[in-house]
């Protein structure tokens, strides 16, 4: 019995002296609870909206300020013409538009009844529905307060809602692009993360050392086959989305293919980087699987709106490739935009590919 007790005490001491074990036991649960607590919410805050107010009277300005002060909305743009609405939505910088009629205040004061129009970006149907409901509640509250201040006037503000790009509010418009983004990231990164780690584990790294190939050639050689296989996966996912689930293909197929290839190359380069840092295949799979799955699902905007996250988590989400590709694939397939609207996202992915390749080459040389 004494030996058994001594054995238990010894194991406790061994665990407490190992920082990696303590990190897994205490650090990861605390980090996950905090992450889920901040991210897992259906409430949307600071959503970017545009306002078109040709009336610019006291009543329309009051309602606009009420929207901005609610905490749910942030006035991103003030439009001068109705024609600016479509480009604003296609750029992906606004989620909702508040449109006033030219005689908003006049009709409200003299006729006791007027209307506003709410236009939502339904490429993400859940977010669009939530924002429309928020805005409608604010309009109703505005109406009640106006009626209460002057009880003799039967004030009424009718809300006309309109959904762009997805009038039928199909959930598949958000589901298929997000799943494609997640699958391509995980498969591409996991496949390449074991390549160099496998060479180390099998003891065949010396063969690469004595070969006349340069480090960049070895890295690209390891990446190219998986790039071709990942592209086949991408084609299968797109075909299933279009022909089985009814996803639209409004934009250029060629542009979608190029952007998808770039995204897969970023994922493969990230996998190579992980492979150069991992000591064996098991560690590489753990880093690529667990290390990429949760951030891609939670912080990229695939499931939860990024606007409602704390600013720090939004910054972390910006370094996740899926955040940018999710915007690209939705814009091409659902909105039909071209490269002129996607040059920022494309430039970010190109920069990530260069950085990951450069770090992989440096780690490759150092470790060899």
Description:
This protein is α/β, with parallel strands linked by helices. 67% of the residues lie in helices and 10% in strands. It has 15 helices and 5 strands. The chain has a 5-stranded mixed sheet.
Topology:
Layout (H helix, E strand, L loop, with lengths): L1 H16 L1 H21 L7 E6 L5 H12 L3 E7 L5 H6 L5 E4 L4 H7 L2 E9 L3 H25 L6 E9 L7 H22 L1 H8 L2 H6 L4 H29 L9 H25 L3 H19 L11 H8 L2 H15 L3 H29 L1
Parallel strand pairs: 1-2, 1-3, 4-5
Antiparallel strand pairs: 3-4
Quick take:
Strands 2-1-3-4-5 form a 5-stranded mixed sheet. The protein has 368 residues and is α/β, with parallel strands linked by helices.
Number of helices: 15
| Lateral strand order in the biggest sheet | 2-1-3-4-5
Radius of gyration equals 26 Å
Query: Shape, please?
Result: elongated
Overall pLDDT metric: 80
Strand residues, percent: 5-15%
By secondary-structure content and strand pairing, the structural class works out as alpha/beta
Q: Enumerate the spans where pLDDT stays under 50 for 5 or more consecutive residues.
A: none
How far apart the termini lie comes to 50 Å
Count every beta strand, where a strand is a DSSP E run of 2 or more residues. Answer: 5
The level of helicity is 55-70%
Features:
single chain; 368 residues; alpha/beta; 5-stranded mixed beta sheet; 5 strands
